[in-house]
Design a protein that fits this description.
564 residues, alpha+beta, Butyryl-Coa Dehydrogenase, subunit A, domain 1, Butyryl-CoA Dehydrogenase, subunit A, domain 2, two-stranded antiparallel sheet, globular, binds flavin-adenine dinucleotide
């Protein structure tokens, strides 16, 4: 059974709970984007995903991308599907009309990528970085670079990569060694080795545009010495650039996506943004890229849930409590618990992710500076939570869905083991989940003593009256942020030890809020709401207790305040 987009569920959340059309219509670029248009785009996207992309899920895994003599051949059907994708205008959905785009809101693109990832994560990696590359060149590229590359990337005629990682430089990009030497004509010669580059080489498009982090000769050591360069596979005069794929990795999953070792050998490139401000040039795409990885987790969990719930409605084993004859396995409490729990994570995650995509547009286009600021705060705080917590749930939840199949899940036939293998990497790339937790607690919550986090909670309280237990979770996190900020003044490492618990606790607090929002407008959302209360949210207390225990130990050992 291939993944089927369940548009009713998605539209209920987007239109029914979030009221997306009227919110977006208040923004000048989307004045024409009404409910009917959003539904129409989503329905067409659903049809495209179902007919063109989902059927390639199995072949992408079994045949995989192949490497031979520097060339990469994508699995059968991938190239034709990509041609249909770009000719159908899908990459251009959320790009500006003046760049050849359709000028639609980010949330429609977010839903498209959730569906694509659910249908075929491996294929979706190919266009996955396009929009980020587009934003990066749009905001930081010179006029000459924009003239040459922006429209090709906006429309998806050419694909793009992000070349950051090197053997010695993973999470710590400050260790990047690739060099860029200025030339008299204003170009640069880029040389170095990059690893793990998704789509570094393939046969989907005639050209591939690489965005490469490298160091200028006068660069300071560390992350502040990095600059960003655009180096295409094919140069504007038609010559092949000095960019070579040396091999592709054998890996646990995602076989349809070539993960390439790339060698840049005096490759011609052009600076994107200012010298030594390469990471800054990439920040423009960071929130959107991390949101998309969170949506991969949600999409993969949905795909696993669909398979598991269909199987549970067919397979009979033993008698469920109170039954007089052999039961469907969906009637066994243990299986019901797995399925309803994942449903709660999927729907709650969607609400948060779609809202984040709307906030991305609010931050860009709202007329009121205060509203732009609150949108920016939302994106900054909620994005690392979505990336880390929903990719972890994507993997662990898909594994729980595999359990529903018993031994049949462990063999290839049903396709669920592929989802578990494919989902694992989402916890690693685009900033590992440990790095997300540190980003959240150390960079975004503690520096202002929990002020921004408190403002986010206040904002939610003004939108709708909060149920008592949601308010209590928010209050507990507020108090904890203040204590952790104080403790950080005399024990610098404490926050690093508990960052993951803080992120998980915030994820659960937001999931509780999302569940309450869904229940208030969709009263039939009963089983997931019950699962949330019974099986999921009690973990909030556990994470809180872990942090409180650490704090208590630290506070006991704290130095006495100096006498006045
Ligand atoms: C399939 C796949 C596709 C990829 N695609 C791309 C791509 O297109 N472009 C690209 O540039 N890269 C890509 N990557 C690379 C990916 O972004 C890195 O693997 C990731 O950033 C982690 O780096 P690393 O593997 O070197 O692990 P390391 O950085 O060595 O980390 C190892 C472990 O230590 C932890 N750790 C490291 N530093 C800290 C810290 N300060 N605090 C706490 N824990 C820490 C990490 O969380 C991790 O658990 C891809 C990777 C894979 C597997």
């Amino acid at each position: 059974m291939d993944y089927q987009p369940r548009l009713d569920d998605i539209q209920q959340l987007l239109m029914g709970v979030l009221d997306a059309p009227s919110q977006l219509q208040a923004l000048p670029p989307y004045a024409e984007v009404d409910d009917a248009l959003m539904r129409q785009v989503l329905e067409e996207a659903g049809k495209f995903v179902t007919s063109e992309i989902a059927p390639l899920q199995g072949v992408g895994d079994e045949t995989g991308a192949r490497f031979e003599a520097g060339r990469v051949t994508m699995p059968p059907g991938f190239r034709a599907a990509y041609q249909a994708f770009w000719q159908g205008g899908w990459p251009a959905l959320a790009c500006a009309p003046e760049d050849g785009g359709q000028g639609l809101p980010a949330v429609l693109e977010a839903v498209l990528y959730e569906m694509l990832s659910a249908a075929n994560h491996g294929w979706t990696m190919a266009p996955g970085l396009l929009h980020g590359a587009y934003e990066c060149i749009r905001h930081h590229g010179s006029d000459a670079l924009k003239a040459r590359y922006l429209e090709k990337i906006a429309t998806g005629e050419w694909l793009a990569t992000m070349c950051l990682t090197e053997p010695q430089a993973g999470s710590d990009l400050g260790l990047v060694r690739t060099k860029a030497v200025p030339q008299t004509d204003g170009s640069y010669l880029v040389s170095g080795s990059k690893i793990f580059i998704s789509g570094g080489e393939h046969d989907l498009t005639d050209n591939i545009v690489h965005l490469v982090l490298a160091r200028l000769p006068d660069a300071a050591p560390g992350p502040k010495g990095l600059s960003l360069f655009l180096a295409p596979k094919i140069l504007p005069d038609g010559r092949r650039n000095g960019v070579f794929c040396e091999r592709i990795e054998e890996k646990m999953g995602l076989h349809g996506s070539p993960t390439c070792v790339m060698r840049f050998e005096d490759a011609t490139g052009w600076l994107v943004g200012e010298p030594h401000r390469g990471l800054n040039a990439m920040f423009v795409m960071m929130n959107a890229a991390r949101l998309h990885v969170g949506l991969q987790g949600i999409g993969l969990l949905e795909a696993a849930w669909q398979k598991a719930s269909a199987y549970a409605q067919e397979r009979r084993q033993m008698r469920a409590p109170g039954a007089t004859q052999t039961s469907l396995i969906e009637d066994h409490p243990a299986i019901q618990r797995i399925l309803t729990t994942q449903r709660a994570w999927i729907d709650g995650g969607r609400l948060l992710a779609y809202r984040t995509a709307i906030e991305l547009d609010m931050a860009k286009h709202h007329a009121d500076a205060a509203r732009r600021e609150s949108a920016q705060r939302w994106c900054s705080l909620v994005t690392p939570v979505l990336k880390a917590a929903w990719t972890a749930q994507g993997f662990h939840g898909a594994s729980a869905c595999l359990q529903v199949f018993g031994g049949h899940g462990y063999v290839r036939e049903w396709g669920i083991e592929q989802i578990v293998r494919d989902a694992r990497v989402t916890m690693i790339y685009e900033g590992t989940n440990e790095i997300q937790a540190i980003d959240l607690l150390l960079r975004k919550v503690l520096p202002d003593g929990g002020g921004a986090l408190g403002a986010l909670f206040d904002q939610l309280a003004t939108e709708d009256p909060l149920p008592l237990e949601v308010q209590q979770r928010f209050d507990a996190l507020r108090r904890l942020a203040v204590r952790l900020a104080q403790a950080a003044t005399y024990r610098a490492d404490l926050a690093y030890w508990v960052a993951d618990d803080f992120l998980q606790a915030l994820a659960l607090a937001l999931l509780g809020w999302a569940g309450a929002r869904i229940t208030s407008s969709q009263p039939h959302w009963l089983a997931p709401a019950r699962a949330l209360q019974t099986w999921v949210l009690p973990a909030f207390t556990m994470h809180l207790q872990i942090i409180e225990q650490q704090l208590a130990d630290t506070e006991t050992a704290a130095p006495a305040p100096a006498a006045a």
